[in-house]
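User: Look at the shape:
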Amino acid sequence: MRKKILIITVSLLLILSLAACADTDVVGNESVDSFEKVLGAMENNVAEDEMNGGWALTSPDGRERFIWSKDYSAGTPHDVMLEFDAKPFIDAGLDVTKLPEGILIEDKIMVGSNLGDEELTYDGGATPIGSYEKLVELYRDRVKYHADLDHYGVDVGDGNMFEWAKDMGINDKDIVFVVDPKMFTDAGVDPVIVEGWVFAKVKVMDDAGKPIEVDKFLKPFSIQ
């Protein structure tokens, strides 16, 4: 009897602990709220992307897209990805023959990750914010908070990110496409002359939680 009570007590404590962790996931929960505000502000720039099996948020100048899947079992190459024009990088010296296979598709550069093979189900059908909520639920480690810019973001892999302001009312960089420059500089790009992109030092946290500065290409937009 005592053993049974002990098992029940431990089980209840585990349930309460898991519930508390879910309730205290401030980054995950608040990122959903702020991303929904971004989607609302960019309503005309958000659309279903049938080719990539998900949703696409297109930048105000139409040259960049952030794409996130609505079903990880669809078999697409990427579940989260950035797509952007190759021309500015080619004009800055990019030798496209030195890029990894599959990165350059026609006149676009695509960087991203395959997350898993889960078949996602929704109450009432898939929506852009619903698919983002699934991303937070299943792959929480991909959702980041960038304290230096007060941004949330999705890590699409290999140092590439899509970020958005926690509060667009007090931030002049509402959305930012973030690209790791190494692949491009290794392929001949002069990073300071890539048209439309800012080459800058960005403060991030390393795997040990210590602040470090890394090189990034940034393309920010104000959408309000």
